[in-house]
Amino acid sequence: MSPHTENPRVYDYVVVGGGTAGSVIAARLTENPDVTVAVIEGGPSDVGRDDVLTLRRWTGLLGGDLDYDYPTTEQPRGNSHIRHSRARVLGGCSSHNTLIAFKPLPSDWDEWEAAGAKGWGAVQMEAYYARLKNNIVPVDEKDRNAIARDFVDAAQAAVGVPRVEGFNRKPFQEGVGFFDLAYHPEDNKRSSASVAYLHPVMDERANLEIWLETWAYRLELEGTRATGVHVRTKDGEEILVRARGEVVLCAGAVDTPRLLLHSGIGPRADLEKLGIPVAHDLPGVGENLLDHPESVIVWETHGPIPDNSAMDSDAGLFVRRDPAHPGPDLMFHFYQIPFTDNPERLGYRRPEFGVSMTPNIPKPRSRGRLYLTSADPSVKPALDFRYFTDEDDHDGRTLVDGIRIARDIARTEPLAGWLKREVCPGPEVTGDEELSEYARKAAHTVYHPAGTCRMGAAADPEAVVDPELRVRGLERLRIADASVFPTMPAVNPMIGVLMVGERAVELIAGDAR
Ligand SMILES: Cc1cc2nc3c(=O)[nH]c(=O)nc-3n(C[C@H](O)[C@H](O)[C@H](O)COP(=O)(O)OP(=O)(O)OC[C@H]3O[C@@H](n4cnc5c(N)ncnc54)[C@H](O)[C@@H]3O)c2cc1C
User: Fold this and answer.
1) 178 vs 308: CA distance, rounded Å
2) Is 278 annotated as belonging to a binding site?
3) CB 3.0-4.6 Å disulfide test: which of 78, 266, 432, 434 passes with 387?
4) CA 429 to ligand 1 center in whole angstroms
């Protein structure tokens, strides 16, 4: 017997991942002083870290030492060079991201319910939004850059969509405006999951222990029951952290299925091929890999742009091309910087001053897959998004439409006066096929992987969790993070993840009672 199994640490709940959903769950469960919780977090604390807590410094975190930085597999119809940033720090991706805050649309939740997630419809989910502790406010007046304001005016005129002030006030199908953000405008500090939920309580609650820089590499199962998590601390010590009540996985859409697979929970044939002993054959683990892919169109401006901003992408546009579609079917972020990382690989050059529009696909139809390539838990999993592989090319066509609409906006005042020339794809690129080729090869991710442990009806053999978020066929093991999304919301997903966290707390507490 190894030393750690002689003296395991025991808590009521072990939460794996102190990220977006994990922070909510840990803070809420420990409101009851009789409940003990351990959070196993792979990264360090965000407390006192200006580089993390200052929202506008977000690009500095990409690819750095607080980023797990996952590659994609070869994408024959897309961009094989995309790096998926996933945060390795308390607060998870809410400590890394741009904190654009959209309550999922009613049609998004209703789609989940129709996909078998009973009890997750729009009417039931509304209450969880009201519970969120994050400071969700519109981009502050002082942060509204002149060129972003002119983008809003030009988009309204060119596309004929309503101007929206407060996207979360009521459901919308189209519109342009400044976003709501989870931030504190007075000092540009994040209102991430960790800031809003953990910082106020983490030093005070004796019943909450956060294990920082500690990696969960395997679940401990006794028969069909999850009883703990094997972790490796920063110092390399291996410890079994036991749960009297439940283990709750909140490691995100990449690392939750990765941990399940390394614990022998997943598609039998895949596990056997790698020599991982099968603990529970669950075919859906790693399937249904979703994302919001985007492309980019960049303009050089006549000169420098005023410097004020919340995080350099403060406004956006939603379009509904198909009037029968329940909600928007094309979205744009407007960047007041020239976002040329991917186009540069295709030979384009970054202008000194410029702006970008990034059309994305709110409801992508391509579905990918995450799988292991090694039984070694330290080897990153393979992420095959199968970008732009849907049968009728809905995804590729959406980006082509996006570039055309972006050009219409750029031709319209008051934005037109700022713009000197289109840098990429360039005005000479006009045909459907050429535009599609550019859009797919210069594609990027909006950093929204989801769906790899999707929720579904208890009898659905491809579902990984049931509508109570319990892993099918196992006991005392739940998942609550972006991996449970059955389908992608049309909007940026972080608020949806926080709401999953709030609902998970209720489900866990309900079962404990
Ligand atoms: C650059 C970027 C910009 C984005 N912008 C926005 C935006 O503006 N608006 C929006 O709505 N969404 C945005 N997103 C997406 C959004 O942030 C994520 O969908 C959401 O935060 C995911 O939450 P989660 O709880 O599923 O996972 P995470 O928040 O990633 O949490 C997972 C946590 O688990 C930890 N962990 C993982 N594996 C292990 C392990 N084995 N052991 C221990 N700990 C582990 C990680 O360190 C992390 O803290 C963005 C994402 C990124 C990366």
Assistant:
1) 14
2) no
3) 78
4) 36
**Separation between Cα atoms, residue 41 and residue 136, nearest integer Å:** 25
Q: Is residue 19 in contact with ligand 1, taking CB distance under 6 Å?
A: yes
Residue 269 — pLDDT band, cuts 50, 70, 90? very high
Residues in Cβ contact with 31 at an 8 Å cutoff, skipping those fewer than 6 apart: none
Question: Structural domain of residue 213, as residue ranges?
Answer: 8-55+87-137+189-292+451-513
Residue located via tokens 């939004």: 129
Whole-number Å distance, alpha carbon 369 to ligand 1 midpoint, is 18
Distance in Å, CA 417 to ligand 1 centroid: 38
Shortest-distance atom of ligand 1 to CA 68:
47
pTM: 0.98
- Assess whether the C-beta atom of 41 lies below 6 angstroms from ligand 1: yes
What is the number of the ligand 1 atom nearest to the C-alpha of 62? 1
Which residue pairs, CB below 8 angstroms and at least 24 apart, start in 504-507? 504/21, 504/24, 504/25, 504/248, 504/469, 504/478, 504/480, 505/24, 505/25, 505/28, 505/29, 507/468, 507/469, 507/478
Check: complex ipTM more than 0.95: yes
Query: Atom 9 (ligand 1): residue with closest C-alpha?
Result: 100
> Which single residue is written with the structure tokens 């797990």?
68
pLDDT above 80: residue 7: no
Same domain, 208 and 154: no
Residue 28 tokens, joined: 């809420």
483 and 399 in one domain? no
Given ligand 1 and candidates 89, 97, 181, 332, which is best to mutate, with the most ligand atoms within 8 Å of its CB? 97
Rg for the chain (alpha carbons), in Å? Answer: 22
Tokens 């690819």 found at: 63
Kind of pairing between the strands at 444-445 and 293-294: antiparallel
Q: Which of 199, 230, 262, 448 is catalytic?
A: 448
Phi and psi angles of residue 178, each rounded to the nearest 5 degrees, phi first: -75, 145
Of ligand 1's atoms, which has the minimum distance to the CA of residue 501?
Answer: 25
Q: Is 252 in the pocket of ligand 1 (CB under 6 A)?
A: yes
Structural domain contains residue 67:
no
| Residue 280 a catalytic site member | no
Give a yes or no: residue 65 inside a domain. Answer: no
Structure tokens at 95: 């400590």
* Atom 1 in ligand 1: residue holding the nearest Cα: 97
Q: Does 112 have pLDDT greater than 50?
A: yes
pLDDT at 111 over 70: yes
